[in-house]
# Entry
Amino acid sequence: MLVQLQPYWLEFVTIATVHLLAVASPGPDFAIVLKHSINYGKRAAIITSVGIGLAILLHVAYSLLGIGILIQTTPWLFQALSYAAAAYLAYIGIQAIRATANTGSMAEKGEMPERQISDKKAFVTGFLTNGLNPKATLFFLSLFAVVISAQTPNEIKVVYGLYLAFATGLWFIALSLVLSSLRVRSFLRRQGHWFDRLMGVLLIALAVKLVWPV
# Structure
């Protein structure tokens, strides 16, 4: 297997580098992981991260099947995807903005009661946040059209896709562990409702940018 992959190491390193730069830049995935880390804790944030990672396979699949080209060359289809993503991000953002401040002794101590979110909802939120993101669609279209050679076998492209999904999930899991650590989370949650509202504004801004790009 390693012998088969040897001719593609340079291509793989290029893909890994470009992907690292893309995944490290703030966007909807970062915002939702931060929101879940603060509000629901480590478990929910990790499950959300797994959903984000697995959504990468969706982008890889339609890129391999050529469906991505159809999306790119059909303006109304790409626009529909953009509106769906914008509506979803705006919905999450509005919910976050409506967060209320804590009252009583717990607020004075900087503590907040634990909120709950089901594993299924955390996973679906992560999956849809990444899966509906048209910026991710454009990224993978560019990746498969420019960086990855047309002569690269589909088997190798699948390996690339599995790596990208794993690396994305691992990145956000690591981010979840940092953000939901006791010290960081305690600091963030002292003004939890303000962080909620800030994330809400960010998500709505991202939604507006999808519909009205600068």
